[in-house]
Design goal:
The complex is a heterodimer of chains A (599) and B (286). By secondary structure, chain A is of the alpha/beta class. Helix content of chain A is 38%, strand content 20%. Chain A folds into three domains: 179 residues, 3-Layer(aba) Sandwich (Pyruvate-ferredoxin Oxidoreductase, domain 3); 182 residues, Rossmann fold; 115 residues, 3-Layer(aba) Sandwich (Rossmann fold), CATH 3.40.50. In chain A, helix 10 links the parallel strand 10 and strand 11. With 286 residues, chain B is of the alpha/beta class. The mean pLDDT of chain B is 95. Classes of the chains: A alpha/beta (599), B alpha/beta (286).
Chain lengths: 599, 286
């Protein structure tokens, strides 16, 4: 092996997509995860993508990891290496493998038709597992051994991983797995290497973490001071709860698993009222149930952070697939005039800092903050620099001064519309957090017409200050004064950025703006960005263009929508194609074809 | 002992003259005064309904939230700061109708707090529809031909779901009711006090005289409050004689007792934030 010599290698050119496919419940995901961690530890940037069936056993599962020596912004394009455990995996994914790509398959399971454009490695994984190890499931580990050997990955990294993973199950299990790894490596050594893919060691030296979006978010919540999490299991948000159930007790906090999402949000509001930062996380169906509690948080002016890891809706929809379909619900869900903040997380790293900011905004403005993530972000893993909590100064809610306590008014009118908030246990601070319309003191005022207007103005008045923060939290990519603008939100940040860079390389004048707070909108930054453009594209992973619709309310512009609604994230090419199409139309002085949709 | 008047809130009750809820409010103020708990350490959480307006009428911290959702909010408040005396209040529609899912699971969880249900067998604030405790065949605005559904037994439900202090009071027996509440607040665990609190405006069936003729006190009959089977049997006694008093009481570790993060005894909102070792457990993800 020559893992250690990187002389004369252009590591930024190392950029490969590996995909593992097979029967759900047979270790496809864990095989992919181990490969991912091994690649990261070998010094590569990684970016994963997985789809898995809604069923626990059976159905098709696959896990993809892109590994590179350079910064990765999307899950990539064509597949370089397909590891197929069964024929279904082969049939499903072979069309995605690039010409000259590699197919490693379990030859006990099926025989693929001959295709001269591809490089095949046939390995009888099942019989090697049963005959040499005596455990059929070790075929996954045999496959890892093949990858380690074939692509020249540091073998000891895989050995360490297996030890970490299986130590709890005893020494015998560890040995069997190490043996399986070796069996895979030895088997493939006997075949001549026919492909040019060589990983070796990657360029990264600094300590980086391998985190999923959900894990990064959970860590950020801890850093923000959240010590109670209440939740109800729901795909794809459950692992936030599982992570915190494991980690919070180490820091003096805990998780409450409630009977439903209504209760989860109730616990969050109760704890926040009692003076403790709390959070809940869910997905669309659970967030729908929380709608009523959102209104209560708004009118009672309680800080609360609600995470919605979006999945395909409506109703139960496609629970394991991704969509950006809950923006309307996040912004406007519920009855009455109900201002809340909506943020969207953009990358695994942003999950950490974004959730810290969400807590800050909730505490500072005493409002619920909805934080939108999605299945593609929540469940993908990426290498991120060790998060530094000191980058975001933690803000605590405004407490009443001694003077204010003398004649305490919970909803006192102030210039910035934020009132000092007492905490139960503070003498003289007693008040009723009211779901009814109330006056400054918190007393019910359900028949006082003018008071309702004043209190509504107070609640919406906070938006002025939040909008300033919103304007600070935008990212710009590419040409700052572009001819073709792209405005996206949430987890499409990376893929839009990659598409913009590809388009710029082709000579287009294109730039992207990516706000992190979607409600209230960063109007100043949006105006400035839109002003000089000839066309603006809004890519969204939904059918109707929910963000585009909210932008049309504020800007009289014929935004070009790019909508994808098949439960999968964008590829860079899809966005690049749209940029090229729109640029061509602009140059030909043609308006883009308007496809009518029922909004 | 503190004075009852210290617990009188700044808002005057808006209940109908003669409403059973006045007696419940008085008994609650008396119970807290007798236990000498400072108003700022009392947290009263309610749902929506006539009886749920109670937090405004008592001098304490209050939370008047959503219909049927008092228990989740009360649980959150207690878990956030378990030094508080947390009391959830509401009506039969709020607790046994729309909120019954929370009731079931709060019983199981055994968080140390008290739940007082002003049970008038009717939806009062919406002016007189059948509730989960309306007796079968009773005519209401929503059941002009009489109710078809069986009435629910709150006592039996609380017992089967794991509440550790289960009592019933009658608003017309104020001192007895205050004693039930005092016991509930003192009890370490989830305590349920179902209170017959007649609606004088919309329930012409379950009136004060109707209850007076029927209620008897369990303690007068030497009821064994440790006997779960007997408590279940008594919970279904309804008709000529209806029992009030303490049905059942048991010591079971509370949720807070069993939560490792609270073993130090210090309330969560009073614990200093441990942030320094964030770096150390990030190592797990390297």
């Amino acid at each position: 092996m020559s893992s250690n010599s990187n002389a004369n290698r252009d590591l930024s050119a190392v950029d490969y997509v590996f995909r593992v496919g097979g029967e759900g419940g047979e270790g496809v995901i864990s095989t992919g995860e181990m490969l991912t961690v091994a690649l990261a530890r070998a010094g590569f940037e990684i970016y994963t993508f997985r789809t898995y069936p809604a069923e626990i056993k059976g159905g098709h599962a696959n896990y993809q990891v892109r590994a590179s020596g350079k910064l990765l912004l999307s899950y990539g394009a064509a597949v370089d290496v397909l590891l197929a455990f069964n024929e279904e995996a082969y049939q499903k994914h072979i069309k995605d493998v690039r010409p000259g790509g590699v197919v490693i398959y379990d030859s006990d399971s099926f025989t693929p038709p001959v295709n001269n454009a591809l490089i095949y490695y046939a390995v009888p994984m099942t019989s090697l597992a049963t005959e040499k190890i005596g455990v059929k499931l070790t075929k996954n580990i045999i496959a890892l051994g093949i990858c380690a050997q074939l692509f020249d990955l540091p073998f000891e990294t895989f050995q360490d991983l297996l030890k970490e993973k299986f130590t709890r199950k005893g020494e015998t299990v560890v040995q069997k797995n190490l043996q399986a790894l070796q069996v895979g490596a030895d088997y493939i050594k006997q075949q001549p290497k026919r492909d040019p893919i060589r990983m070796g060691r990657g360029p990264r030296q600094a300590k980086e973490l391998v985190l999923s979006g959900n894990e990064s978010l959970a860590l950020g919540a801890i850093a923000a001071g959240c010590r109670i999490y209440a939740g109800y299991p729901i795909t794809p948000a459950t692992d936030i709860m599982e992570f915190l159930a494991r980690e919070l007790p180490k820091l003096g906090g805990y998780v409450v698993q409630t009977e439903d999402e209504i209760s989860a949000m109730g616990v969050v509001l109760g704890a926040s009222f009692a003076g403790k930062k709390a959070m809940t996380g869910t997905s669309g169906p659970g967030f729908s149930l929380m709608t009523e509690m959102m209104g209560l948080a708004v009118v009672a002016e309680l800080p609360a952070v609600v995470v919605n890891v979006q999945r395909v809706g409506p109703s139960t929809g496609m629970p394991t697939k991704t969509e950006q379909g809950d923006l309307y619900l996040a912004m406007y869900g519920g009855h009455g005039n109900c201002p809340r903040i909506v943020m969207a997380l953009t990358s695994v790293e942003d999950c950490f800092y974004g959730i810290m900011r969400a807590f800050n905004i909730a505490e500072q403005f005493q409002m619920p903050v909805v934080v939108l993530s999605d299945a593609s972000l929540g469940h993908r893993k990426a290498t991120v620099p060790v998060p530094d909590p000191s980058k975001v100064t933690v803000i605590e809610r405004r407490k009443p001064s001694a003077d204010q306590m003398a004649n305490y008014k919970r909803y006192q009118f102030t210039p910035d519309h934020v009132s000092p908030m007492s905490i139960p246990g503070m003498e003289g601070g007693g008040y009723v957090a009211e779901g009814l319309e109330h006056n400054e003191s918190g007393y019910p005022a359900a028949s006082n017409h003018e008071n309702h207007l004043r209190l509504t103005q107070k609640r919406y008045g906070k938006f002025v200050a939040v909008e300033a923060i919103s304007n600070d939290l935008v990212r710009l990519y590419g040409d700052p004064h572009p001819e073709i603008g792209v405005i996206g939100w949430g987890a499409t940040e990376g893929v839009i950025r990659e598409a913009v860079e590809l388009a710029q390389a082709k000579g287009y004048s294109v730039g992207a703006l990516h706000p992190k707070i979607l409600y209230p909108l960063p109007l100043a930054k949006l105006s400035e960005f839109i002003k000089g453009t000839k066309a603006v594209i809004i890519p969204e992973v939904n059918y109707t263009g929910q963000f585009a619709t909210s932008l049309r309310k504020r800007f009289a512009i014929d935004f070009v929508q790019l909508n994808k609604c098949i439960g999968l994230p964008f590829t860079p090419k899809e966005i690049l194609d749209k940029i090229e199409e729109v640029a061509t139309n602009v140059h030909a002085n043609r308006r883009a074809a308007v496809v009518p949709v029922h909004l | 002992m503190a004075q009852v008047k210290e617990y009188i809130g700044k808002v005057k009750p808006d209940w109908c003259a003669g409403c059973g809820d006045f007696g419940v409010l008085n008994a609650l103020q008396r119970a807290i005064a007798e236990l000498d708990i400072a108003p700022h350490n009392v947290q009263v959480v309610s749902g929506i309904g006539c009886s749920s307006n109670l937090p405004g009428f008592i001098n304490a911290y209050g939370f008047h939230g959503l219909h049927g959702r008092s228990l989740p909010v009360a649980s959150g408040a207690k878990l956030g700061n378990h030094d508080l005396t947390v009391i959830a209040t509401g009506g039969d529609g709020d607790g046994y109708g729309i909120g019954v899912g929370h009731f079931v699971h709060t019983c199981r969880r055994n968080i140390d707090m008290t739940y007082i249900v002003m049970d008038n067998q009717i939806y009062g604030l919406t002016t007189g529809q059948a509730s989960p405790t309306t007796e079968k065949d009773v005519r209401t605005k929503s059941t002009p031909e009489g109710t078809i559904e069986l009435a629910l037994s709150p006592i039996a439900l609380a017992l089967t779901c794991g509440a550790t202090y289960v009592a019933r009071g009658f608003s017309g027996e104020n001192l007895h009711l205050a004693q039930m509440m005092k016991g509930a607040i003192e009890h370490k665990g989830f305590a349920v006090v179902d209170v017959f609190s007649p609606c004088v405006t919309y329930n012409k069936h379950n009136t004060y005289p109707w209850f007076r003729e029927r209620v008897y006190k369990l303690e007068d009959e030497k009821h064994d409050t440790n006997d779960f089977r007997l408590a279940m049997e008594k919970s279904f006694e309804w008709g000529a004689r209806i029992p009030i008093g303490l049905f059942y009481k048991v010591d079971r570790p509370t949720y807070e007792d069993q939560e490792p993060a609270l073993r130090s005894g210090k309330a969560l909102s009073k614990q200093p934030l441990q942030r320094n070792d964030l770096a150390s457990f990030m190592e797990d993800f390297l």
